[in-house]
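Extended Data, panel c. Modelled sequence:
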Amino acid sequence: MTQTILVTGASSGIGLATARLLAERGFTVFGTARKPASAESQGVKMVALDVRSDDSVRACVGQVVATAGRLDVLVNNAGYSLTGAAEETTVDEAKRQLETNFFGVMRMVNAVLPGMRAAGAGKIINVSSLAGNTAIPYSAFYSASKFAVEGYSEALWYEVRPFGISVSLVEPGFVNTPIGEASPSAERLLPAYDATRKQMLTAFGHSLRAGIPPEHVARRLLQIIEDPHPGLRYPVGRQATWLPRLRSVVPWSVYAAGVRKTFAV
């Protein structure tokens, strides 16, 4: 039987590449966007979703199940990156970042788990980031949201495994997507940070443009979906593979110097 897959944040970047690849491979694929006004794209059925809203999450999952009769795989990809120094970021801005990137994941998982437990099977795949292992300067709350997703997913792995449900984390490094261009900045910028913030954003932009294409991440997601016994963590890209390993073996001062050089701070 064809598996039904729900991919959140499927209007661009990793989500769009993933939804299209899965549709090409014959899966029944639903993608989500806040405003899915555009026509269905290459076999992907678009559904309205705002992961910050309990009602929207329930309606989205209900629509998928009502249409397809089941939901086998959830790919939590929706998110954004807030840039700015930690001091420049207000509590409300930080809350909005966590509301989407972390609590949005939690809402989606809670909405699909009852059906998966009843079926005795299912896969939850949370798209994390290298920023869930290595904090990015001037992206403190994006990093915090991904660190939170990492810890949450690891605990969830233990809890739902007895029900036949797997949990996996996909951890890309730099990916050439519009996330940098679409990133909102903290509204209260402080002159003290102007020089290093500008240097960091320039370096970050270069790294994104030199990053792997989103199709590489999509292929890793396909691998997890096709694997009957997937693992917990899947780094994608050179940086995501070797940086966490390096962090575990070199002194902090050496590692931190490399991060400072990468982000020009």
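Residues 140-160 form the longest helix (21 residues). This feature is highlighted in the accompanying rendering.
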